[in-house]
Every structure is written in structure tokens, then in C-alpha cells.
Amino acid sequence: MEIGTIGAGAFAQAFAKHALKAGHEVKLSNSRGPGSLRETVGSLGPRAAAVSKEEAAACEMVLLAVPWDNVPETLADLLAWKNQILIDGTNPFHGKAGNFRLADVGNLSTSQLVAALAPGARVVKALNNMTVPNLEAEPIVNGARRVAFVSGDDASAKKRVQNLLESFGYSVSDLGNLRDGGLIQQAGGPLAARNLLEQGECQR
Ligand SMILES: NC(=O)c1ccc[n+]([C@@H]2O[C@H](COP(=O)([O-])OP(=O)(O)OC[C@H]3O[C@@H](n4cnc5c(N)ncnc54)[C@H](OP(=O)(O)O)[C@@H]3O)[C@@H](O)[C@H]2O)c1
Description:
By secondary structure, this protein is an alpha/beta fold. Helix content is 31%, strand content 23%. The chain has eight helices and twelve strands. The chain has helices at residues 10-21, 38-44, 53-57, 71-76, 110-117, 132-136, 155-168, 180-185, and strands spanning 2-6, 25-29, 48-50, 61-64, 85-88, 93-94, 101-102, 122-126, 140-141, 144-152, 171-174, 197-198. The strands form two sheets. Strands 1, 2, 3, 4, 5, 8, 9, 10, 11 and 12 form a ten-stranded mixed β-sheet that branches. The chain has a two-stranded antiparallel ribbon with strand order 6-7. Strand 9 (140-141) and strand 10 form a beta hairpin. The protein is globular and about 45 Å long. Bound molecules: NADP nicotinamide-adenine-dinucleotide phosphate (NAP). Residues 6-12, 30-32, 53, 65-68, 70, 73-74, 89-91, 93, 128, 130-132 line the site of NADP nicotinamide-adenine-dinucleotide phosphate (NAP).
């Protein structure tokens, strides 16, 4: 599968490594254009490519991995979603690392806001609760699998993201719809930044 990333920072690169290892092609994009990502894709390997934001967004599965303050402008440029799956990996922080403030998102989950800004995309919240060091580490720790979460309103899209994350090695737990599950896994919710492991028989 071709997977696009909108944003190519620490989080998107950690995700890309898993997707590449699982055999997918990854098209990464950022705000400065493909030329600025040459070194990054070079280090990721031959199945990684640097592309425009529009090209990344045309993939059948797309990871949204930009700072929260940049989400509206990022999605405003991408109005032609054609039923693709948009994995919302964002967390609602204003500002930059070292000076974060939790954004007030009113009565919605942040992924509901993302879905409203990306009409035609099937939004699934996933991986946002993992820190980059945990995402970069092996999904299997001493025979236990790290737990990843998915939330979404479209059951088939959610299942496909679940399958993808399971292929990375995670144990995946479905938290329900974008509102209820989203609120649980987003920053400020009870699962934010939790690093949970599932003991038991490991298939890999
Ligand atoms: N870091 C973590 O531990 C972590 C964990 C889970 C989730 N997250 C979430 O993932 C998101 C990204 O975090 P990060 O740590 O990867 O940040 P980061 O390293 O600062 O990277 C941000 C990326 O977003 C791109 N970007 C910004 N505005 C854009 C636009 N208008 N169009 C296209 N690309 C744009 C940047 O491109 P340029 O460099 O070209 O501007 C950069 O590639 C955030 O919402 C964060 O909350 C982070």
C-alpha cells in the first residue's frame, strides 16, 4: 500500500519506519516541499519518497502529523478527499516543545474537528498517545506487545488501521467512535502518553 504523511517530523518519521518495515511505500510531505526532505527519505530507504502535500494526501491511507496550530491551514489546502483513510496522529497542543499549552477544543474530540476540516476523508484517531521514543522502540518488549488504540466513526477504515498497526507488531484496542474514543486517547485524556504492554502469547 502507498501511505502518505502530511508532516515529516519526528512523529511521521517514526511511523514511516514501521510502515516501511511492514512492506509499504511511504510518501512524506512537509510545508517546505520535497526538496527539503531529500536527506530524510534517503535515510529511510528506497521505498520512501518525498512528495508534495497534495501527492501525499492522494494516497489511500494518509497520516496527519503536523502541529495542532497548523492543522486548519494544512487541511484547508486539501479539499478533495476521496474517501481515503486519514489517520489523525495529532495532539491538541498550542506552541512549541518546551512551552506547550493544551488547546481548548470545546465540546468535541480533536479528531471530530479534524474530520470537519477534511470532508470526504475517513478519519481514524491512532498512535497520537504514543511518544516518539516509544513509537521508535520495538513494538514487542520481552514478549509483550505495546498497546495501540484506534477510534473512528467508519468501521471499515478503523479495521484497516487496526490491521496496519497489528502488522507493525502492536496489540490494538478499539475505543469506539471519534468522539468517545477520541476523548479518551487525545492529549488531556486518560490514555495520553501511556505506554501499555499486553502480556500473553505473541505471534511474532
Ligand atoms: N513528538 C511526539 O512525541 C508526538 C507523539 C504523538 C503525536 N504527536 C503529534 O504529531 C504531530 C507532529 O508532531 P512532531 O513531533 O512530528 O512535530 P515536528 O517534528 O515539529 O514536525 C512537524 C511537521 O509538520 C510539518 N508541517 C507544519 N505545517 C505544515 C503544513 N501547513 N503543511 C504540511 N506540513 C506541515 C512540518 O514541516 P516543515 O518542517 O516543513 O514546517 C514538519 O514536517 C503533532 O500534532 C504532535 O502533537 C507527536
